[in-house]
UniProtKB/TrEMBL annotation:
It comes from the Bacteria. GO terms for biological process: lipopolysaccharide biosynthetic process. This is 3-deoxy-D-manno-octulosonate 8-phosphate phosphatase KdsC. It catalyses: 3-deoxy-alpha-D-manno-2-octulosonate-8-phosphate + H2O = 3-deoxy-alpha-D-manno-oct-2-ulosonate + phosphate. Mg(2+) binds at D21, D114. Its EC number is 3.1.3.45. One of its GO terms (molecular function) is N-acylneuraminate cytidylyltransferase activity. Substrate binds at D23. Belongs to the KdsC family. Keywords: Hydrolase, Lipopolysaccharide biosynthesis, Magnesium, Metal-binding. Coiled coil: none annotated. CDD domains: HAD_KDO-like.
Amino acid sequence: MAEASPEILAAARRIRLLILDVDGVLTDGRLTLDADGNENKTFHVRDGHGIKLLHAQGTEVSIITARHSPALAYRAHELGIHRVYQGYQDKCLAYTELKISLGLEDEAVAYMGDDLLDLPILIRAGLAAAPADAHSEVLKRVHWHSRLGGGRGAVRELCDLLLQAQGHWSTILQGYLEREPR
């Protein structure tokens, strides 16, 4: 995991909602289209496990993306992400709706984005994060960035940071270390 300053850890302790962009964050940003124009996306399994670990500790996870994708809808359902906003060119509309519906202020929200379209939320979020391969203008403005690229475990790094900062990591790890082989 990328290094985190005391200020980043303090911000991470306040997070109750993690919002993720998709292309370039949950995926590597490449679009794979078949001859009929159907889109395929590749998601990293460790990102998914990190999301499930956050859910288990009570942190809400949501997705806001400018594109529509049946593959994303399927993956979000698999991960138990119920608040998925697809087709939002103005992502701030979904961001504001999420905050109001959950009764949260900016300080309780972490957002991971990778491109210019994400900047309006990144500059408001209590913890702004980006994958290592995000656009340079994004990297200049986030509080924290992962060591890994989008679709390559960046989301998992952020999930682990949140879990560690909130004091859940040692219990989670111990649960795996104490499991009996079957």
